[in-house]
Amino acid sequence: MGDRLLIATLLSNLGLLAYHQGAYAVARALHEQSLALRRELGDRPGIAVSLINLGEVALDQGDYLAARALGEESLAISRELGNRLCIALSLDRLAAAAVALGEPTGGARLWGAGERLREQLGSPRAPRAQLDFQRQVAAARAALGDDAAFDRAWQEGRAMTLEQAMALALEAA
What we know:
Layout: H1 4-20, H2 24-41, H3 44-60, H4 64-81, H5 84-100, H6 104-121, H7 127-144, H8 147-159, H9 162-172
Helix pairs in contact: 1-2, 1-3, 2-3, 3-4, 3-5, 4-5, 5-6, 5-7, 5-9, 6-7, 6-8, 6-9
């Protein structure tokens, strides 16, 4: 039928299915195809979503620099579009990448800011995503080795305006 936007969406959905089945290489390839098609079409909201999905796969594959770059681009696009849910998702990806790259304090700040935004939106994480998030936070706490410092950084992030949090995320990236 030639509906390229629908094809891009289907590729993204198949990528999510492959990701949830643990087939990360397949997921990455499908999300990359979706992203390429969305770029051709100029589908900015879809580009942001594809970047977020690719960032999640990159995190699970241990490609933290790619995850950071993907998170930075998705955040910039989401900011431009005013898509607050995608901003929260991008902050999550950037926080996880920061922790994996040795910046647990920065990650805690970004998670705190993202958590506050999620609360404002009334948009909790899906159960699987919540489990991944809890695992990532536990790893960040362990990496920092100081629960009080982690909690302070988290609260600093929660106290930031959305603009401050996005500036911090883009500066850190």
